[in-house]
Amino acid sequence: MRRYNLRHDVGGTWLVVDGVTTEPANLDDVALSGMGWPEACDMVALLNCLDAIENASRDYEALAAAE
Q1: What pLDDT was estimated at residue 7?
Q2: In whole angstroms, what is the distance from residue 11 CA to residue 23 CA?
Q3: Euclidean distance between CA atoms 14 and 5, whole angstroms
Q4: What are the Cα distances from residue 9, in Å, to 1, 16, 19, 36, 62?
Q5: What is the pTM (predicted TM-score) of this model?
Q6: If exposure means fewest CB atoms within 10 Å of the residue's CB, which of 6, 49, 55, 66 is most exposed?
Q7: 25: Cβ–Cβ under 8 A, 6 or more apart, which residues?
Q8: Strands 26-27 and 30-31, bridge-based pairing
Q9: What pLDDT, in 10s, does the model give residues 7-39?
């Protein structure tokens, strides 16, 4: 399941929503809102890739600790 998704924002813009908190996602303390469609799609893809890498890293760390 993807953690980050898009939501239509006011004024015809888009925001990235964190599925864990259901709040607008932040990147370096900047809310990812008020974006155009292409930029918002790119941010969702990027954040979901980073989340997958982080999850895989935790899985490999747990495997290494168990050995």
Answers
A1: 96
A2: 18
A3: 10
A4: 23, 9, 16, 10, 39
A5: 0.84
A6: 66
A7: 4, 15, 16, 17, 18, 31, 32, 43, 47
A8: antiparallel
A9: 999 899 999 999 999 999 998 999 999 999 999
